Amino acid sequence: MTKSHTHPLEKILDSRIAIIDGAMGTTIRTYGMTEADIRGERFKNSTKDLLNNGDLFSLTQPEMVGDIHRRFLEAGADIIETNTFGATSITQSEFFVDDPREHGGRKDPEFYQKIIEDSSLSGLAWDINETSARQCREWADRVGTATGRQRFVAGAIGPLTVSLSNSPDADDAGFRVVTFDQVKIAYMEQIRALIAGGSDLLLVETIFDSLNAKAALVAIREVFDQDGTELPVMISAAVGRGGETLISAQTTEAFWTAVKHVRPLSVGLNCSLGPDLMYPFLEELSSKADVAVSCYPNAGLPNPLSETGFDLGPDDMARYLGDFARGGLINIAGGCCGNTPDHIAAIARALEGKAPRQLGKREVAA
Fold first, then answer.
1. Which domains does the chain have, with CATH numbers?
2. pLDDT by residue (tens digit) across 131-141?
3. Fewer beta carbons within 10 Å, N or C terminal of the chain?
């Protein structure tokens, strides 16, 4: 069964390259936030450091997060992502639950079952996702109305801090710290909150473990079926220097084969490598996929001496993404780690008027 209507973003993709935003974490660091800032009143008594848990800023520093969304939109982004990369109960538990390994224990399915059943963690995950989606929605609508150009909110669904594909125990290759169903349940909580907050799209991104991504995609399908709703789905993988997903080691072609049954709005590559190193893998994906192709790479490789923590500046990223466009490889472009609003503005200028990768007729699963 296929949909009879076309999503507004699909119409844009037929006519031009759409722009997705840059790195929330990188941009947050330019505001000089402290541990006290991220804690606010709600988390002031937390026993663990929270500053690396950037999703919490949506709850404790909403003005800053909104300002970042505004800046990316004014830089030219058609799509802005919710600040929810780690907003599942499983990932949030890293910051709020004692690690049993510090006391001679281990993380295992029994441990994560308690995480899944912890109402405070599931409530926190809901709050982060719904709040962040509403913040994005507000700014997407505000800037869209002011400019006469519709903007879209992508509910960001990250890869988790656990793996379904690999065992952390060198002596027990079959051991997994978490089960597929536990991961699926955590993702379903996140997805429902992202939809409740007003997301236009769902973005399963930075996929380094294909089985984790499969759990997210199953969760999306079950939420759609149970709740009688449907949103376009975007899928984006992180690859290493050999072009394989970082943990599950699927080649670019194998990855597409594993997810194409979902009939996503787009499939692509993000994070992981700089744009120069990503080019051949993007080229391969573009030759295989029959849906829109996205690419939002890191701003080169990490460099602690640079202002953003990565090598490439706005003009560098604009040049590389322009090469991707001239090669006919992309329909959606932006930046991941190290990419600020200035980077996105430069990319948007470089791609203005560039033809998008050509697409055939698409069928979207209902």
1. 8-351 (3.20.20.330)
2. 999 999 999 99
3. N
